[in-house]
Amino acid sequence: MSNIAVEPEFEQAYQELALTLENSSLFKKFPKYRTALKVVSIPERVIQFRVVWEDDTGKLQVNHGYRVQFNSALGPYKGGLRLHPTVNLSILKFLGFEQIFKNALTGLMMGGGKGGSDFDPKGKTDSEIRRFCFSFMRELSRHIGADTDVPAGDIGVGSREIGYLFGAYRRDRNKFEGVLTGKGLTWGGSLIRPEATGYGLVYYVEHMIAYANAGSFEGKRVAISGSGNVAQYAALKCIELGATVVSLSDSRGALIAVGDKGVTVEDIEAIMELKVNRQALADFPAQENLKYIDGVRPWEHVGNVDIALPSATQNEVSKEEALALVAGGTKFIAEGSNMGCTLEAIEVFENERREKGADAIWYAPGKAANCGGVAVSGLEMSQNSQRLAWASETVDDKLKAIMKTAFTLGLDTAKEYVEAAEGELPSLVAGSNIAGFVKVAQAMFDHGDWW
């Protein structure tokens, strides 16, 4: 990796995968896969372009636009579009790299990609966002298609932005096709798509709890970060299953539960409305059951919790916060965000897993635990291909099955390739990395991409 520009987020994602492969028996049993790692770590194509648009005062504005088409061995490139001022090539390469193996774990035929812009939708009018989306799609439409590359939403890209982007594509290319996912229900979208990542995260953790003979969500305290779609629907599903949610957060601070009541359904509904209006949690009205702490993440403020679900953004759990979760008795941590834990935090969790056996904290990486969102995007692609719309129960049942497959695949692969002591919980991060990598690498080998 030394011959590329400094790209810290991408290098972190690469190192997480490479280290787990090196520390397993995969390369000893199959040395040829070392070559595949070199090939798969370089995107098939990186598209960069300028996005010129006009604000409401008539002033010209310009932003950077990107699409990283990382790997298409398993199907069309699939991955979200992110609109946020922090967007750069390193972040999109890390997200696209993770997406390759996440998509592989779903069992659906999707490659990996990611894209977006450093445009900030916060504070912009609907007209400004529409003009930006039209300009962005005019260039992007040259490079995507239902059988080539199917973007979705991500941070800063919700149903409004998907609508504008789809409308621009339809007009520019004269095609009505499933070129985007997360579409409106009346024009090709899928039921359960907004809920899918959060619901899928909880379904995945249910399998962790069951395997560890730790009961169910009933009665457990759950710390969640973030307050977007993933966090909202994960929290609602946890409450539905009888858990107490003790935190939510955003980039400015955290809401922490006071007493035993926790976050309520009514609280979450109010936060949903707040976020639709692009307001911060600092604007959430004072509640007896919640206190707002400015400038913090929840992990060192929630006290003892059974489950932690980082669901905001990358690197939101540091080594120090990981140690606080361990000290607080946390037994399960699963990423609703992409690369939510730093490498140092993962090392804390994995060392605990190796040293404390069945009593240890058990960590699940985002490429497995949060694959429910892209899984339902894949199901949306299937519905579009058939010109059908499935019932919510049908989609939810398929989502549950996919999350079970992702868990089981990571679990069984860890048992096969990672040595473990008696009573030690299998490494889900190693198993998920190896399983996703081998599936993609073998497809690339079959296509003659490496030999």
If you had to describe this structure to a student in words, what would you say it looks like?
The protein has helices at 8-22, 26-29, 33-40, 89-106, 126-140, 159-173, 196-211, 229-240, 265-276, 319-327, 343-356, 366-369, 372-386, 392-417, 428-446, and strands at residues 45-54, 60-71, 77-83, 112-117, 149-153, 221-224, 244-250, 253-257, 290-294, 307-309, 332-334, 362-364. The chain has 451 residues and is α/β, with parallel strands linked by helices. Among the domains are: 44-182, Leucine Dehydrogenase, chain A, domain 1 (Rossmann fold); 196-364, Rossmann fold, CATH 3.40.50. It has a seven-stranded mixed sheet with strand order 9-8-7-6-10-11-12. A five-stranded mixed sheet has the order 1-2-4-3-5, with helices on both faces. The chain is globular and about 60 Å long. The model has no long low-confidence stretch (mean pLDDT 96).
Helix-strand layout with pairing:
Elements: H1 8-22, H2 26-29, H3 33-40, E1 45-54, E2 60-71, E3 77-83, H4 89-106, E4 112-117, H5 126-140, E5 149-153, H6 159-173, H7 196-211, E6 221-224, H8 229-240, E7 244-250, E8 253-257, H9 265-276, E9 290-294, E10 307-309, H10 319-327, E11 332-334, H11 343-356, E12 362-364, H12 366-369, H13 372-386, H14 392-417, H15 428-446
Parallel strand pairs: 3-4, 3-5, 6-7, 6-10, 10-11, 11-12
Antiparallel strand pairs: 1-2, 2-4, 7-8, 8-9
Helix pairs in contact: 1-4, 3-15, 4-15, 5-6, 7-8, 7-13, 7-14, 8-9, 10-11, 13-14, 14-15
Evaluate the radius of gyration. 21 Å
Named at the architecture level, the CATH assignment of the domain at 196-364 is 3-Layer(aba) Sandwich
N-C termini distance: 20 Å
SS-derived structural category: alpha/beta
User: Briefly, what CATH class of the domain at 196-364?
Assistant: Alpha Beta
